[in-house]
Amino acid sequence: MGDRQISNIQPSNSGDTRGRGSSSTLISFDNVSKTFPDGTHAVDNVSLNVEPGQFMTVVGPSGCGKSTLLRMGSGLLPVSEGEVRRSEGNLGYVFQDATLLPWRTVQKNVELFCELRGLERGERRQRAKDAIDLVGLSGFNRHYPAALSGGMRMRVSLARSLTLDPPLFFFDEPFGALDEITREYLNLELLRIFAHAGFGAVFITHNLYEAVFLSTDVLVMSSRPGRILKSFQVPFPYPRDLDLRFDPAFAELTGEVSEVLRDE
Amino acid sequence: MSARHTSSRLRSSTYRLWAPIVVFLAVLGVWYAISLSLDPDRQFLLPTPNEVIRVGFLNQDNLFQVLEGLLWTVAVSMTGLVIAIVLGMSSAIMMSQAKWIETSFYPYAVIIQTVPILAIVPLVGLWLGFGFTSRVVVCVIISIFPIITNTLFGLQSVPASFHDLFTLHSAGRPTRLLKLQFPNALPAIFTGFRISAGLSVIGAIVGEFFFRKGIPGLGRLLDLYRARLLTEQLFTALVFSSLLGILVFWGFGFIGRLVVGKWHETT
Predict the structure, then answer these.
(1) ipTM, 2 decimals?
(2) Is A249 in the B-facing interface, judged by CB distances under 8 Å?
(3) Is B184's Cβ below 8 Å from some Cβ in A?
(4) In this complex, which of B168, B171, B179 lies closest to A76 when CB atoms are compared?
(5) Each residue of B34-64: pLDDT tens digit?
(6) Helices B182-210 and B132-156: angle between axes, nearest 10 degrees
(7) Which of A12, A36, B232, B251 could potentially form a cystine with A85 if both were Cys, beta carbons 3.0 to 4.6 Å apart?
(8) Which helix (H) or strand (E) is A41 found in, with range?
(9) Pairing outcome for strands A55-59 and A217-221
(10) pTM to 2 decimal places
C-alpha cells in the first residue's frame, strides 16, 4: 500500500528557483532514475519538461521504462533519484486498458472522478454529459462497458479524465490494443479534443507514425535502462489530417526517428 | 437460412424439455417394476408411486405434518443463513482490510469447513441445548465458509489498474471498499450465497437428527418415518426437503441475476 501514496510530488510554486522551465511548466523531470527493489534498472537519468500546448510523445522499444516514467510522473511510483515537479491542477491519465468499472454505465463511469473528488451531483452529471458529447458518444450514456467496442471504451476512458479539465494528460499506449483503422480514427479524434481542451500531453506509444502524427515533440527512448536518445520537433501545423501521412516530409521525419531507434 | 436456424433452435429447446421427462418416466417405470415384483409383505420397502401420492400427499393429516415440518426447517435454515451471511461477510471485509487479520483467522475458517459437522454437533448440543438455537448454530457452521471465501476473493480480485485510478484521485479506504471492492465482489458474493443457501438447508436437516427438542422439522420427521417404517411419508418429506434446496439455490441465482446480471455474465 505504501507506494500508492502520492508523496514525491511537489507542486512547483511561483518562486521556482531551479531555473528549469518557466513557471507555467506543467511537469518537469529532473535527472530522474528508477531502480526497482529487485534490482531492475528501468529508467536512467531522464530530464524533460512539458509546457502548455505541447504534445510530447515518447517512443521506444517495449519494456524500456516508458510506462514507469508516467507512473513516476503521476506519483503512483516513487522515483529513485532525481525529482519530478508537477504544477497544480488535476492530471488526466489514460491507461492502455480502458479501466472502466464494469458495473457502471458509461455515464456513471465518466462521473467517477468527479465523484471521488467530491463534486456535487448536478455538477458531475453535467460535466460527464459534456465530456461524453465531446468524445462523440452521445446516446451511449446508459450502456454498460461490456456492450461497447474497444475503441468506444477508450473514448469513455478519455471522457472520464476530461471531466476534471486537467491541464496535463498522460496517455500510456491508449490505442495499442486497437486495430489500425480504429487507431487512425481515434488519433484524429484525439487531436480534435487536444485542440478543443488545450491540455499539455505526454503520450506513450511504440508506433512511430502515431508518434509523429500526433505530436509537437517526439522523444526516442533506449531499451532498458531507458534513456532519452534524441528529441525531435515536429514542424507540421495543426489541424492535421490523415493525408499528412503521405507527405514526403512526414515520411522523412518518421524515417529519422526510426533510424535512431534502429541504431540503438 | 434464418428459418432453418430458428427451427433447429426450436428443436433443441423442445429436446431440452423432453429429454428429462423421458428419463423421469423411465425411472417411474423401473420403480413400478421393482415395487410390484416385491412380496406384498415387503412392499413397504418401496411402495408404488401412486401409493406414495395417496398416503403421503393426498392424506391431509400426513401432508400437513410434513408441511409444518417444512416450515420449521425453513425457519431454522434461513435464520442460520442470515447469520452466516452477516458474520461471513463482515469477517471477509475485515480480512480484506488488514493482512494480519486474514493471516490470523483464515486458517480457522478452513478448519470449520474441514472438521466433519457430525463431530461438532454433539458439543453444540451439550453447550447450547437441543432446540432451535443449536439447530441454527449448526446451519451457520456448515454454511459460513463459502460466504467468507467468495466475499474475500471478490474483494481482493480488483485489478491493480483500478486501484491505481482510485489512488490517483486520492480515494480513502472506505471509498475504495464501497465503490470499488464491494461492487467488484458482488458476483462472487452471490455465488457464495447460492452455495451456502443449499448448505444451510442441509445443516437444518442434519441438526434435527440430533436436536430433538421443540417442534419437529423435516429432519426429525425423516428420522421418525424411518423408525416407524412409514415409507410413503418418508418420500413426501424427502420431496419437500429437496424442493426447498432447489428453491433457495434457484432463488439466490435469480436475485443474483437481478443485481449483477446487467453487467456480469452469471453462470
Answers:
(1) 0.85
(2) no
(3) yes
(4) B168
(5) 999 988 888 888 999 999 999 989 999 999 9
(6) 160
(7) A12
(8) strand A41-50
(9) parallel
(10) 0.84
